[in-house]
Amino acid sequence: AWSQLMLKVLGIKYTISGKENLKGPAIITMNHQSILDVFLLPAISPGIATFLAKKEISKVPIISWVMKSCGCIFVDRKNTEKAIKSIQDGLKKLPESCSILMFPEGTRSRNFKLLPIKKGVCHIAIQSRLPIITIGQYGMEKIGGGSNNLFFEPGTLYLHVNKPLDTSKWKKETLSQHLDEIKGSFESAIKRAK
């Protein structure tokens, strides 16, 4: 509700195709193009959901308070062991029906193109066995998105939700294959969003 209110205040609308694929619990992911994404992704997510986010977000006023109150899992990306442990501990605390929201590129794109997918999303999938849903977004460039921009023009974003990726048989040994699978799903979702 908070996210939907923020989008409304900013004059941001969105249209979604493939909405029938948006079901939880799942790892719900979206390509990351703006700070606005932290409102957009929870606004469209079904049921109970919380973020997996980099530790630095926990120091951002207001946004960190909201994310902490929703059980957000904060990850130290500079320390792999700590990151894995915080993910494991965080997953144990979540209700079974809870979806995980994340931006698997790890940071906002500066040129609105898809960045390499980080391994963390695969580790979470292997531990949780939740399916991965990729959402491609288009239109952020036209309303003033970007890596460091905090000012937006009212406008419409276009989203496409792909069919969930089954992760029930994924293994650490085939990580690169899974990363390619996620990347391909993102590329097709972004193309359809356009």
What does this structure look like?
The chain is α/β, with parallel strands linked by helices and 194 residues long. Helices cover 36% and strands 19% of the residues. The protein is built from seven helices and seven strands, in the order H-E-E-H-E-H-E-H-E-H-E-H-E-H. It has helices at 2-10, 37-44, 63-69, 80-93, 120-128, 140-143, 175-193; strands at residues 12-17, 27-30, 49-54, 73-75, 99-102, 132-138, 155-161. It has a seven-stranded mixed sheet with strand order 1-7-6-2-5-3-4, sandwiched between helices. Strand 3 (49-54), helix 3 and strand 4 form a beta-alpha-beta unit. Helix 1 (2-10) crosses helix 2 (37-44). The chain is globular and about 45 Å long.
Which descriptors would you attach to this protein?
alpha/beta, 7 strands, 194 residues, 36% helix
Q: How many DSSP helices?
A: 7
Q: Could you tell me the radius of gyration in angstroms?
A: 16 Å
Output mean pLDDT.
Answer: 86
Are there runs of 5+ residues with pLDDT below 50, and where? none
The secondary-structure element order is: HEEHEHEHEHEHEH
**What's the end-to-end separation, in Å?**
27 Å
Label the structural class.
Answer: alpha/beta
**Reading side by side through the largest sheet, how are the strands ordered?**
1-7-6-2-5-3-4
Strand content: 15-25%
Q: Count the beta strands.
A: 7
Q: What share of residues is helical?
A: 25-40%
Query: What sort of overall outline do the alpha carbons produce when their principal axes are compared?
Result: globular
Main beta sheet, described?
7 strands, mixed
